Amino acid sequence: MIERTFVMIKPDAVVRGLIGEIISRIEKKGLKIVGMKMIHLSREEAEKLYSIHKDKPFFNDLINFITSAPVVVMAVEGESAVSVMRKMIGPTDSKEAPPGTIRGDFSCSKSMNIIHASDSLESANRELSIFFKEFLKYSRTDEKFVF
Asked: What are the residues whose beta carbons fall under 8 Å from the beta carbon of 113, sequence distance 6 or more?
C-alpha cells in the first residue's frame, strides 16, 4: 500500500553535513520525496511535534536540542513507507542500531540520533500536518516498472 510518512533530518546530522547522504539513501530505496524544506524549528513547533513526550523527564532537553540548529523536514511517499523508513533508520539508541541503518552508520548517541521518522500512519498524518499543507505530485521513472 502506498503511504506517506514524515521524516526529519535532525540538527546533529545537519551540522555534520549528512543531509545529502540521508536523502540519497531514501531515494535509492525507491521512496519518493513529495515535500521538503530546511527550517529552524520554533519552540512551539517542536513542542507540538514532540507533544507525546511532554510529561517525560527528557522533554526540555529534547526541545532544546531540536531547536538548536536547522532541520530538514520531508514528506516521503512509497510502498509501506512508514515501516520501510523505520527499518532504514534503525533503533533510537545508536549502540543498538545495526550497521547499514542510518543511525547505525552515523548516530553518535541515543539523544543525538540523526533522524526522526513517524512510527505509525496516525503519527505520520499528525506530524505531516504541522509542516505541510500540500504535497508534490510527480512520477519517478522507476515507478513505471512496478508490477
From this structure: 10, 12, 92, 93, 94, 103, 107
What angle in degrees, to the nearest 10, is found between the helix axes of 121-131 and 81-89?
A: 90
Distance CA 54, CA 39 (A): 22
Q: Are 19 and 33 in contact (CB under 8 A)?
A: no
What distances in angstroms separate CA 69 from CA 6, 59, 114, 147, one per listed residue? 19, 17, 12, 42
pTM for this structure?
A: 0.94
Which active-site residues does the annotation give?
116
Which range of residues forms the domain containing residue 83?
Answer: 2-134
- Tens-digit pLDDT profile for residues 93-142: 989 999 999 999 999 888 889 999 999 999 999 999 999 999 999 988 88
Domain tally, the chain: 1
User: Does some domain include residue 146?
Assistant: no
- The CATH number covering residue 55 comes to 3.30.70.141
Asked if residue 60 is part of any domain, the answer here is yes
Do 33 and 76 form a contact (C-beta atoms < 8 A)? yes
